[in-house]
Amino acid sequence: MLQNIFKTTTRFLFKNKVYSIINVFGLAFGLATSILIFLYINDELSYDKFHKDYERIYRIQEEYKWGEKNQLWATTEGNLGYDLTVNHSAYGDACRIMDIFNPPYLYANGNSTSEKRMIYADSSFLDVFSFPLIDKQAGSLLNSADKIMVSNKIAKKLFGNSKIAGNQVEVDNKNCTISAVFEDVPANSHFHFDVVFSMMKLHQEWSRADSAGPMVFYTYVKAKSLEKGKELQSHLQKNMDEYLLNILKKDSLSNRFAGLEGKMLFVPISDIHLKSHAEKELENNGNFEYIIIYITIGIFILILAAINYTNLATASSIKRAKEIGMRKVMGANTGSIFMQFISESFALVLASLLISLILVELSFPYFNDFAGKNLVLSQLLKKESIVYLVIVILALSILSGLYPSVFMSRYKTSQVLATKINAGKNDLLNLALRRFLVISQFAISIFLTITALTVAKQLRFIQNTDIGFNKEQVVVLPLSGQSNIKYIPELKNELQQIAGVESVSGSSNIPGERFGVYGVRMPELRSTLKNDEKRSDRIGVRMLCADYDFLNAFGLEMVAGRTFSKENSADSSSAFIINETAVAKYNIKDPIGKKMIFSYALKKPKVGTIIGVVKDFHYASFHTEVNPLMVHIFPRFYKYIIIKIAGDDLNKTLVEVEKTWNNYLPKVPFSYSFLDKTYDNIYTNDKRMGNVFYYFTFIALLLAGMGLYGLAAFITEQRSAEISIRKILGASLGRIMFTLSKEFTILILIANLIVWIPAWFFLKNWLNDFAIRIDLGIEGFILAALFSLIIGLLTVSLKTYITARANPVETLKTD
Amino acid sequence: MNIETMIKTSGLTKIYRNAEVETRAIQDVCLEVKEGEFVAVMGPSGCGKTTLLNILGLLDNPSAGTYHFLNEETSKYKEKKRAQLRKKNLGYIFQNFNLIEELNVYENIELPLIYMGYKGRYRKQLVLSALEKMHMLHRKNHFPKQLSGGQQQRVAVARAVVGSPKLILADEPTGNLDSAHGEEVMRTLGELNKEGTTIIMVTHSQRDASYANRIVRLFDGQIINENILQSFSEKKII
Ligand SMILES: Nc1ncnc2c1ncn2[C@@H]1O[C@H](COP(=O)(O)OP(=O)(O)O)[C@@H](O)[C@H]1O
Ligand SMILES: [Mg+2]
């Protein structure tokens, strides 16, 4: 029996090649897309789960709310981790990490490397985290200032070998011992690093690391159990509440912190990547919303594929009615017909799966590129992937096969004996359902089209809007470590001599990076507004530590006052520049000449005056408005040398730059990047979403077109006699095509109307994430409508043309 | 002289209802067919012949009246039960052959046996002997499209008889054939009848009807007269 059904099915499929190909490829595209989405999401959800007992590892964060303000940082002060280790070890192990702002270079064995990602960590590092070691010394690994752990990558770079624990390495002119070599940090970690220094080293440089102070430490705890974790949290919360109560008591006069509330957050380590978006995250985190969007789209695409199948299978049912009828005449019951069609869809889904795996494999290079992943097909062999595939295949088979099966098994036996299947009454419901399916398919595709068009427009807008600085032909050289900074003045002078170099400046940050927030004091603010008791003299600004030539190097403009000048010897020690937003936000009247005090991590505060106001420039992405900014000359924080190149021969200039660099800093590897490239990276996530939408839109339109082709096939099949008679009576081909296209035009227009409102809301919401954005116009909507109509009508016309072109006698003969 | 009654209907009526119209396709048909009979049903187009045949063939239920098939009252039977009876007892031949295009000659003929649940070896034996009887053995691997009308109908006849049904229903079996091929099919049916299979056949052709023992004439859904060509009992006694 099964064999017989199988034969009929395969022969039917081979005979109706177009039908089968459309079906199989429709399903394959749907499956391939969903597999890619699955792998992507699976990867996103796998972050930090490689740590042993990751469920018990938390990052502790503090959230404060007062007035309108909400402060949520990923970091804490240093005393929290110290307190946990010393006083609360019964709850679990704690470990602090500090990101090294200006990573030093490493030199050993005649090779050198400058990696951008280095951290300090407490000696409990490996008690909390599980980073597998390749080689290690006996004993504790991070318990003295001169011990460092390096990644396999660095070991290979310096020694050409992984087993190098115990070797010496020169770090910023000092000697350290490599206590361990660890496997390169996997991609699915929320932070990456190539070198781990002992916290002891930080202690040497800065003795107050264990006390209250700047919030620069990431504090992690691995609780002994989930309950211990909860206990610890409520314990810390209690301490915090008491502490805040004290502050509020002291504050009762000025009332600056009215309504201050604080929360001790225990963020599970596996949630950080997708759900944490605090200030000062270690890396750009993913976005859980996008995960939801992608899942939704994945399901949509699968539904589209299933609808397609349903459409085509029922469309072909007329051709198969005779077979089914005869089977029933000869005694097949409803159940076996039902099984026949379910197994048929199952077989097709399996065939599509094979094709989809090929498609997935072929698309990996592109997909990985735009998704920023390293996915490979073998990941599908994992348990959860197999479960996923089995579920999807069963669901898809049932979803696709159900309606055709029911539809087919319901055929009345006696109908088949009539020489022609009566397609009228019985199929009205069928036709209505299929119209509904086509409308849904188009609705989904139109939604995606509108979204894709709008996302593209916003991204283009970002690309074309003036960011207020010049990012073309700006080369960024990372400095590696403190010891280099002293060479900067000479290096700069030398670089300046090179033909093609326009200006050179040291800099703490480059646009596109996060600029740290600092509090500075402006005593005059208090005096200018005497009647406002609550007015504080402290203002929060982001900081750029730059150099005399920064204005030129970045291509900025001043709106008031002057920029730093070498003629004014005081500029290097007591001059500040702020941006327009700072002036506006803090309502600073006549800013030039106002006093400013900067005291962060300084033994003696830096006191100076504002010498100018720089025109606002977008040093962060368009997701936020420009924030208040302060610029001053402060070489200790330099991390880069910025070179503005003027000449045409960029490469020649760069060769010269490298030569000069190697003269001054022979042990520090030369590397550079272009500012425009790094700046564009801030839109990686947005572009990624754009790309995903373009791709999905394409697939959705393709599937919708296929579905429509199916419906057109169904209708023209039903009306083939009518078409023939019309032709015999003299109707032209064009006329017939018009008659048949009318209905589809209406269906597509309905689909457009249906999605307008949800698409509008979705896009409004998406655009709201950008402080600087396009207006959501109606062009996208109109364009998508036109687009869908064109695709729809082309598809229908094609099918009608094929049917209508046929010799009328041929269609009538079989009746 | 104990001839069993195979079919007995009384007051058999079928009404088709559409939104606007109500068609009485057959009305008040009382008919008895005994085992071994060969009945021809004749009448103008649209008079209800096919409808009657469908009901007698258990492909459809009557709107009113009773239908005893092999002493079972089947007029209220659900599709499932009818399917059971069908596959055991009935074979069908249609004007347009109704062969399954995706299956070849052999597989088409085998199909009813599969539904009857016969084992593979036994099926083969039956199919081959049916093919032989229809002189179609050399065509067993052909697909319907590759055969002439007459050949297709012979395959359809083979398919109808392969399971040795008690009753064969044929709806204008020669309607799509030229006279030579028509003759051939009629001769085969005649032989089957002689071997004991009961046949009810709808036809427009007087010549085809002459193969039958008895002619039932339908007009506007009602039987107008029964014409016994040959005394059936007589033939059996001899
Ligand atoms: N499924 C049906 N629905 C509605 N009317 C039908 C249907 N089948 C047959 N009829 C009507 O019943 C009458 C008898 O049809 P039929 O039995 O096919 O006649 P015949 O086979 O004698 O030509 C005709 O008037 C026909 O239009
Ligand atoms: Mg008829």
The helix/strand class of chain B is alpha/beta
How many helices of chain B in DSSP terms?
8
Poorly predicted tracts of residues of chain A: 419-425
* Number of separate strands of chain B: 10
Distance between the termini of chain B: 11 Å
Most strands sheet of chain A = 13 strands, mixed
- Strand percent estimate of chain B: 25-35%
- Judged by helices, strands and strand pairing, the structural class of chain A is alpha+beta
Defining key terms:
heterodimer; A: 815 residues; alpha+beta; seven-stranded mixed sheet; B: 238 residues; four-stranded antiparallel sheet; 35% helix; 28% strand; globular; disordered C terminus; binds adenosine-5'-diphosphate
What does this structure look like?
The complex is a heterodimer of chains A (815) and B (238). Chain A is an alpha+beta fold. In chain A, helix 22 (684-718) packs across helix 23 (720-728). The longest helix of chain A has 38 residues, at 334-371. Chain B contains eight helices and ten strands. Chain B has helices at 49-56, 79-89, 105-116, 120-133, 149-161, 179-194, 206-209, 232-237; strands at residues 5-17, 22-34, 38-42, 64-69, 72-73, 90-93, 167-171, 198-202, 214-219, 222-228. Chain B has a six-stranded mixed β-sheet, sandwiched between helices. In chain B, strands 2-1-4-5 form a four-stranded antiparallel β-sheet, covered by helices on one side.
Secondary structure blueprint with pairings:
The complex is a heterodimer of chains A (815) and B (238).
Chain A: H1 2-15, H2 17-45, E1 57-66, E2 69-72, H3 78-87, E3 92-99, E4 106-108, E5 111-113, E6 118-121, H4 125-128, E7 133-136, E8 147-151, H5 152-159, E9 168-171, E10 174-182, E11 195-198, H6 199-205, E12 218-223, H7 226-251, E13 261-268, H8 269-275, H9 288-315, H10 317-329, H11 334-371, H12 383-409, H13 413-417, H14 428-464, E14 474-478, H15 488-497, E15 501-507, E16 517-521, H16 523-528, E17 538-546, H17 550-554, E18 558-561, H18 571-574, E19 575-579, H19 580-585, E20 595-598, E21 606-614, E22 629-633, E23 640-645, H20 650-664, E24 673-674, H21 675-680, H22 684-718, H23 720-728, H24 733-768, H25 779-805, H26 808-813
Parallel strand pairs in A: 6-11, 8-10, 17-22, 19-21
Antiparallel strand pairs in A: 1-2, 1-12, 1-13, 3-6, 3-12, 4-5, 4-9, 7-10, 8-11, 9-10, 14-23, 14-24, 15-23, 16-17, 18-21, 19-22, 20-21
Chain B: E1 5-17, E2 22-34, E3 38-42, H1 49-56, E4 64-69, E5 72-73, H2 79-89, E6 90-93, H3 105-116, H4 120-133, H5 149-161, E7 167-171, H6 179-194, E8 198-202, H7 206-209, E9 214-219, E10 222-228, H8 232-237
Parallel strand pairs in B: 3-8, 3-9, 6-7, 7-8
Antiparallel strand pairs in B: 1-2, 1-4, 4-5, 9-10
The structure holds adenosine-5'-diphosphate and magnesium ion.
